[in-house]
Amino acid sequence: MSEHPDKSLIFDMLDQLKEINLPISLKLIMHSDQGCHYQWADYQNELKALNYVQSMSRKGNCLDNAPIESFFSLMKRECLKRQVINNIENLIQVTNEYVEWFNHERISCKLKGMTPIEYRNHTLAS
Prior knowledge:
Order of helices and strands: HEHEHHH
Largest sheet: 2 strands, parallel
């Protein structure tokens, strides 16, 4: 998270993806909106180097963003609406804690009773 959607924010995210070490054989999709920072040539080149397919939402088609919109809805209900957030640092801390909990502890019926990380690892092992 950042106060501004600048290059460092975008490339820090890509650096975090490199740390996950997903198999290169997977056809991974990086989905985003049509913001200008996702149209930069160096961003697109980095995605290609990581073997990611770039996908951007079409204007007026909310279904493109359905998975992340669903996540944000859960995050608002389960976390953000239950706390007072006073500043960007507090928002970053609360968000990071929620994402960590969501990925590593929160089980989901849609994921066969597993956490997202457990489900990903199970799927990769299959």
